[in-house]
């Protein structure tokens, strides 16, 4: 199934619509030739034709977390028939200070004609996502495992943190934030490039119950000011500058201008914590306001490396992430703590067939939802080793990605079709001169991947042996909604294939009637899922109008699709 404008989908939901899954458990054979379908097995030949189905190799399937259409179907049907039981079992694998009310795992109303739209999961349960992503891994004996590798903009600049070292850095920043009056429910704006300090800042906020709002470091002063005015943060965290390729970007200057602009609009921020990024700009060259600006290196390092966890309700806010609204005012998408935690962890685990030995690299910036769910939270909740890259994929040349893959033995590589297409244009020699033997699973996010880019990614980058998880989801959904599970069923270039556990996609016509079989229409979701956003910050009416009024009783994705 492909969509018109979002990040792109797959086949329908209830069990009758999953009949196609059963037919995919083996190569098309006994029933006679299926017209227009060619079967290709992973690692055996190139994907060439528009209609190729790429079957996982028996070895890959045998070791996969979900190894057959039948296993998927059983898990999926349970997740739809008994969502409370399905998600509660997963929730039990995380640490909860207090258990949720078992009779109220999920409460929802998606129908605007029946009252206000509301969604809640595990309400009354008390937990903390930072504790589950960091401390829990140390307590299970993985304190010395690498949590994060960092590759700088310039080749040869690198760093790494174990889970124990990550916890110490998170605690120091949490303690600093508490010392300047940041507490539970307070907003903090983070305007940082892809330094280790960016996920550290996200986790430090989450640890003390503060609500982070990461703004992509490169957005204009106006965009940043709009977000400051909307969420009224206690402080802004930034760095003096960053180099993207050969080009320096003066981030602190952008923040200075944004703070002037927000003050004109009645919101004054009295503190700007600034990390000195020495490779991009010297301290003495940074513009400075002594009464407002503070160097990270001067203050944060003085604090204790231990910090108590603030236990929060599953429905307490975790972060705000602004998406550009069509009417000009950005929409502050609000995600909460408990359901989001389960959903990002579970989608990461199954969609990438995650193994504890994997080295995982997602090229997205934490300024986008992908960097929240699949750089910071999802991977760390699974105890994964994550690579964070400050630079750009074509600096110093177009082989940089594959140089990094070989340097760190990356096994799961998750990127966007735009990057794939841009590297395609630069030619295959930049790819083939590197080994890439460590790669095991590829992933695509951000928009539909056209079949020719899919095949280049599969044939050239993955040597025709790595399945591609072509994921459709949105900032609002928190995690993957429609995605292949590598090893479970064949892949079709350009299709996101089937819904993830607990997700019920439907295609409706303009009257809101569900349509069956092969068709095109509007993609909607019926019933909530744990990772769903709960509101637009300060504007619940816009939340209802944009997403729930077009088709009463459904979440409207804003995407068209075909099955």
Provide a compact summary of the structure:
The protein is of the alpha/beta class. The protein is 31% helix and 20% strand.
Q: Can you tell me about this structure?
A:
- With 563 residues, the chain is α/β, with parallel strands linked by helices.
- Helix content is 31%, strand content 20%.
- It has 17 helices and 27 strands.
- The strands form eight sheets. It has a seven-stranded mixed β-sheet with strand order 8-7-20-19-21-22-23, sandwiched between helices. A five-stranded parallel β-sheet has the order 10-9-11-14-15, with helices on both faces. Strands 1-27-25-24 form a four-stranded antiparallel β-sheet, with no helix packed on it.
- β12 and β13 (247-249) form a beta hairpin.
- α11 (338-351) crosses α12 (369-381).
- The radius of gyration is 23 Å and the shape is globular.
- Residues 1-16 and 26-37 have low confidence and may be disordered.
Strand content of the residues, in percent? 15-25%
Low-confidence stretches: 1-16, 26-37
* Strand order in the sheet with the most strands: 8-7-20-19-21-22-23
Helical content band: 25-40%
In terms of structural class, how would the helical and strand content be classed?
Answer: alpha/beta
Q: What gap, in angstroms, lies between the N and C termini?
A: 4 Å
Largest β sheet strand count, sense and barrel closure: 7 strands, mixed
What's the shape? globular
Radius of gyration: 23 Å
Number of helices: 17
Secondary structure tally: strands? 27
Mean pLDDT: 92
Protein name: Acetyl-coenzyme A synthetase
Catalytic activity: (E)-4-coumarate + ATP + H(+) = (E)-4-coumaroyl-AMP + diphosphate; (E)-4-coumarate + ATP + CoA = (E)-4-coumaroyl-CoA + AMP + diphosphate; (E)-4-coumaroyl-AMP + CoA = (E)-4-coumaroyl-CoA + AMP + H(+)
Keywords: ATP-binding, Ligase, Nucleotide-binding
InterPro entries: ACAS_N (IPR032387), AMP-binding_CS (IPR020845), AMP-dep_synth/lig_dom (IPR000873), ANL_N_sf (IPR042099)
């Amino acid at each position: 199934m492909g969509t018109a404008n979002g990040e792109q989908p797959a086949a329908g939901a209830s069990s009758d619509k999953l009949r196609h899954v059963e037919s995919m458990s083996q190569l098309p054979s006994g029933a006679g030739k299926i017209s227009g379908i060619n079967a290709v097995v992973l690692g055996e030949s190139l994907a060439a034709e528009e209609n190729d189905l790429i079957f996982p190799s028996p070895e890959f399937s045998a070791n996969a977390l979900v190894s057959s259409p039948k296993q998927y179907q059983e898990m999926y049907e349970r997740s739809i028939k008994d969502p409370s039981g399905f998600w509660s079992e997963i929730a039990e694998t995380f640490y909860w200070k207090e258990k949720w009310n078992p009779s109220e795992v999920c409460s929802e109303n998606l129908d605007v004609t029946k009252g206000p739209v509301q969604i809640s999961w595990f309400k009354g349960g008390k937990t903390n996502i930072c504790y589950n992503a960091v401390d829990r891994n140390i307590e299970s004996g993985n304190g010395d495992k690498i949590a994060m590798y960092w590759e700088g903009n310039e080749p040869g600049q690198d760093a790494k943190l174990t889970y124990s070292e990550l916890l110490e850095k998170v605690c120091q920043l949490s303690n600093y934030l508490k010392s300047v009056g940041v507490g539970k429910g307070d907003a903090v704006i983070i305007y940082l490039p892809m330094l280790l300090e960016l996920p550290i800042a996200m986790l430090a906020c989450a640890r003390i119950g503060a609500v982070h709002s990461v703004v992509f470091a490169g957005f204009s002063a106006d965009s940043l000011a709009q977000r400051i005015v909307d969420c009224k943060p206690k402080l802004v965290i930034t760095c003096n500058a960053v180099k993207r390729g050969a080009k320096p970007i003066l981030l602190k200057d952008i923040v200075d201008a944004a703070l002037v602009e927000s003050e004109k609009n009645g919101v004054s921020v009295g503190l700007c914590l600034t990390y000195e990024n020495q490779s991009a700009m010297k301290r003495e060259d940074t513009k400075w306001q002594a009464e407002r600006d503070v160097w990270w290196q001067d203050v944060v390092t003085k604090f204790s490396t231990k910090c108590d966890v603030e236990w929060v309700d599953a429905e307490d806010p975790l972060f705000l992430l602004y998406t550009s609204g069509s009417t000009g005012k950005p929409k502050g998408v609000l995600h909460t703590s408990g359901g989001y935690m389960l959903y990002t962890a579970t989608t990461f685990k199954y969609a990438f067939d995650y193994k504890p030995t994997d080295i995982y690299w997602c090229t997205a910036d934490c300024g986008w939802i992908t960097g929240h769910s699949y750089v910071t939270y999802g991977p760390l909740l699974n105890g994964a080793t994550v690579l964070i890259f400050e630079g750009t994929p074509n600096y110093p040349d177009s082989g940089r990605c594959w140089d990094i893959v070989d340097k760190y033995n990356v096994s799961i590589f998750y990127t966007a079709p735009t990057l794939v297409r841009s590297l395609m244009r630069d030619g295959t020699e930049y790819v083939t001169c590197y080994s890439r033997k460590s790669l095991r699973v590829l992933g695509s996010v951000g928009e539909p991947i056209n079949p020719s880019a899919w095949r280049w990614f599969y044939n050239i980058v993955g040597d025709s042996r790595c399945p591609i998880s072509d994921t459709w989801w949105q900032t609002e959904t928190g995690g993957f909604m429609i995605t292949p599970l590598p090893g479970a069923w064949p892949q079709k270039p350009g299709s996101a294939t089937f819904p993830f556990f607990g997700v019920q996609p439907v295609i409706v016509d303009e009257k809101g009637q569900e349509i069956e079989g092969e068709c095109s229409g509007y993609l909607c979701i019926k019933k909530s899922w744990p990772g769903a956003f709960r509101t637009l910050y300060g504007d619940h009416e816009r939340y209802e109008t944009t997403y729930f009024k077009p088709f009463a009783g459904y979440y409207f994705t804003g995407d068209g699709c075909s099955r």
